[in-house]
Amino acid sequence: MFLSKLYSINNFKYMNDLYYVIRRTAVYHSSQKNVSRKHISSDLLENAFDSISVNKPTDWNDIHDFVLNHEENKENICNKINIDGLIMKWCVQNNKTSYAESYITYLRQSDKEINLATFGLYLRSICQSNLVKLEPEKETEIIQMCTDLKNGHPVLDSITLEDIICALSLTHKWEDCIPLLEEVKLTKTISTRAYSFVISAAFLNNNEKLAWALANELLELDREPLSMVYLSYLKSIKKLEKGGNIVEKLEILFDFFKRNGLICREDVAKELLLYRNTSNVLVKFSGFCNVCKTKLTKMELTDDEFSELKEVFLKNVIIGQDIFIKSDPLEMGQFKEFVTNLGKFDVILDGLNIAYSVGTNKGTQVFSKLVASVISYFVQQKKSVLMLGRTHMNKWPKSNWNYIKNNCTIFLAKDISQDDPYLLYCALHSGPKTIIVTRDQMRGHRHLLKDRKYKMLFTKWLGQRQYELLTFNKNDKPIFRIPPHFSTIAQNSENIWHIPYKSQDKNNSINDNYHKNWVCLKLEK
Amino acid sequence: MFLNRSIIGATFLRSCLVKNSSTTKICNKIKCSIESRPFSADIPKTSYEHTAEAITNNENNTTSEVSKSNNESSKSGDRELEHKLKVLMLEAEVLRQQGFLVPDESYMKDDMWQHLVELPTISSRKKYLEFLFKLSKKQEHRKIKQVEKQKKLDEFRATNPLEGLNVLTIEEHASQYGLKYNNMFLRFYDTIINRTYNHKLFQAMMFGQKLVIDCGYEQHMTKRENSYCAKQLMLLFAENRFHSDPFDIHYTNYNRNSDLAKLFHKSIPTLYNPEFPANIHENSYLNVFPKEKLIYLTPHCREEMVSFDHEAIYIIGGIVDKINNEPLSMAKAKREGIKMLKFPLDKYLLWGSGSGKSLTLNQCVAVLLDIKKTGDWKYALRHVPKRKLAEVIVDKHVSKFKPDFPVKKNNTYNTKKTWKPK
Question: Which UniProt key words apply to this protein (chain A) (predicted)?
């Protein structure tokens, strides 16, 4: 009696210990100190400008004292070497051009040696405020400063050089930038900002050939030009005589958008809307434009592009540098054999992606049921289905697994191989009409294609073929996010152009995740 | 157990022998250098000062030689490189002036510049400079602290001349305690400790289980990763040596001209001596051991290790993958058709969020050593750092829960006994 009681109580004690709650903590301490070090200078300057108002040049001395002798500046992060640069940087970041000007005059008056960083940042602040129109006195100042900098230093670093390039490109001596670009290339890839400044300078000065060449160079680096490039192109068009010429020039720009799959920003769209016969359109899911009463088209890949993409995909993504990383030659051989005997399928399923869409801890019963119901949905529509998965799916509960086996074709990769490259390849092989069901955006595989052209083709293709499983309704029928009936690329039917643009306000709900904001232009010759 | 005691004794005695604080610093230096040179047969056994001088001179020589050669390769050579270096020096200066975290000019050494020249992008250079800045600050703080401590002690001695003499560092106290600088304990030299450890390794070479470290991933790692890897190899060697039942470690695919090997050699200078207890093979493990006995330990495979196989030869991939996390070791094992296994990390541990499940090389070896000795995974996996694991706490609400039957207060199983006056 006693023993049993004791036992139960002991048991209880033991049980009590078992009631552990797991608390997950993230590790911060190592990064925290570093973050504070990085932000201390901007915080201190913020405080300084709040408490001290700068009217006279001597006020800058107060700001120096405030920042340098502040108790938070214990580690001497802000010191005499970098205080000028920090103040200038603050002015650039907060767009305070008047402060920047007054500070540089203060420095000149106080006979202090002005360092390179301060000059560079001052140039940057001038660029910022005088983007649209440069006053003649500023122009002479810029040219004077840039020549001084170049003459004063036998070599210049890439950061200062880029600032000089941006500033010079605003002046009439913009052509001096081009040799400087080569100099930057020596130590770093040229930033998008510097490229954009030079390109827009070339447009404004009617050197279109150079501009387009540089723009293509920028695209090859897998970067997109800034809005200022398009704006200055449009500005250069306006200078031309009115008439047919403008239409041609606009078409060149739109063709550039179309070829490179670029989507411009809202400021460019606003500029476009100033033209005749243009309107801002919200396109519906069907792709119907309610202004010109035409339908946006789906840009299909041509057969050549398709087979090219397929080849590159096999070479770069599946095989890559070492076939053993994602698969092995034996499996690859099996797969190739499997693919050659493969007919065309309407639907290709990413089995494990569907299974794990509810979370990975639900158990095989749930997983298999999910996949089976997705398959039954497509089988009811009399579509042929191929499913890719891994071999461990063989251990799923027999009732559901047999249903899956009987109703679709299956390829199972090894447990330690990656299955989604195979999925994509099957889909590419099966032809341009096949649908892929997966929630994976495949960004990693897209990245491995390397070439911008193939990346674009890949997104274009996947964007039109991918069904994403969202949920199931009450009758266990799957609900998908279906791709829209048009592609988000600048397009034309004869002389009517539709240009997509990025809108600032984003109130797209999840269910209609397609591009809505377009500009509709009717070009009349 | 006996050995452990003897180590403590030895370090204690060594500190007893040191007479004043200036020599303690040198002694520390020797200690470091000796610990990094496990087999120090070449160090003469005369006096500590003598060896200290020898070592510091030696170090100076080697570092100056290195810097000279770096000088030659980075500053001379072709003109293009020189130009690039100049541009980068200016770049660092501008970054400093802009308020980025860049160390002082005086802190930058030649090998650091060399590394900067090799880095391709400006963001990678910024990161490296920031890393150097943090390092420089750390050293600065340490120096300041040391000076402050010394200052305080000096001040105290100056103000209280009588008591001041009695304030001694632990080394000074130990040397004066007892029979006027005499001691009843036998003195253990470092060489003796070294020999005992190496003896264990020689034993293992004859009778112990083999363990392979595959050093063939040098070109897949960045320079920083290579240096971390070299450090881990050094720690791994030490960890293995300290253990009561060490492995016989074989370094395979070892290329003596690689960065990794050079750095490893720098941390263990006697590594290539013929009497040094390490097996270095330039060719693959496949040429050295029978294939069917080999098991590659890789985290990317699916099969977990259930129990330790005392007959097998385990392979650990000598790779630090901070940036590139492709399953390289798995690919290699697959290509060569070697059996793969991984540690049962998920079976025995609850992982926290944040840092991944990667282990360093020395941790892996420590786990293997313990699992070999005890066969208890829970014990062996104590080497996994605590910060990676989920924090386990007892919920307060649950502990307040009371049983629904009455429990007598003075139970026999109540361990807390409170004494009350009668």
Answer: Hydrolase, Magnesium, Metal-binding, Mitochondrion, Nuclease, Transit peptide, tRNA processing, Zinc
| Residue A158 at interface with chain B, using a CB cutoff of 8 Å | yes
pTM reported for the whole predicted model: 0.73
Q: Name the least confident of A206-220, A238-252, B27-41, B407-421.
A: B27-41
Chain A, window 229-258: residues with a beta carbon less than 8 angstroms from a chain B beta carbon = none
Angle at A363 between CA A362 and CA A368, to 5 degrees: 105
Which residues touch A274 (CB under 8 Å, ≥6 apart)? Answer: none
Q: Which residues neighbour A219 within 8 Å (Cβ) at sequence distance 6 or greater?
A: A225, A260, A452
Q: Within its chain, how far is the Cα of A491 from the centroid?
A: 22
State residue B205's pLDDT score: 94
Per-residue confidence band for B281, with pLDDT thresholds at 50, 70 and 90: very high
Interface confidence, given as ipTM, is: 0.80
DSSP B352: P
**Contact between A27 and B387 using a beta-carbon 8 Å cutoff:** yes
Element (H, E) at B95: helix B79-97
* DSSP per residue, B160-208: -HHHHHH---HHHHHHHSSBTTB-SSPPPPHHHHHHHHHHHHHHHHHHS
Indicate if B379 and B238 belong to the same structural domain.
Answer: yes
Q: Judge contact between A473 and A479, C-beta under 8 A.
A: yes
Residue ranges making up the domain that contains B151: 78-176
Cα separation, A452 vs B307, in Å, equals: 50
Residues B375, B314, single domain; the answer is yes
The one-letter code for the residue type at B180 is K
Task: Tell me the shortest Cα–Cα distance from A5 to chain B, in angstroms.
Answer: 10
B403: contact with A, CB 8 A cutoff: yes
Q: Please enumerate in sequence order all residues whose Cβ is within 8 A of that of B301, keeping only pairs 6 or more positions apart, or say none.
A: A416, B330, B333, B340, B341, B342
Q: Is residue B200 part of a domain?
A: no
| B212 plus B322 within the same structural domain | yes
Domain assignments of chain A as residue spans, ordered by start: 303-481
Angstrom CA distances, A314 to A170, A318, A333, A415, B251, stand at: 47, 5, 13, 20, 36
Residue B39 confidence (pLDDT): 36
Phi, psi of B104 (to 5 degrees): -65, 155
Q: Into which CATH architecture does domain A303-481 fall? A: 3-Layer(aba) Sandwich (3.40)
Q: Which one of B121, B334, B352 has the shortest CB-CB distance to A188? A: B121
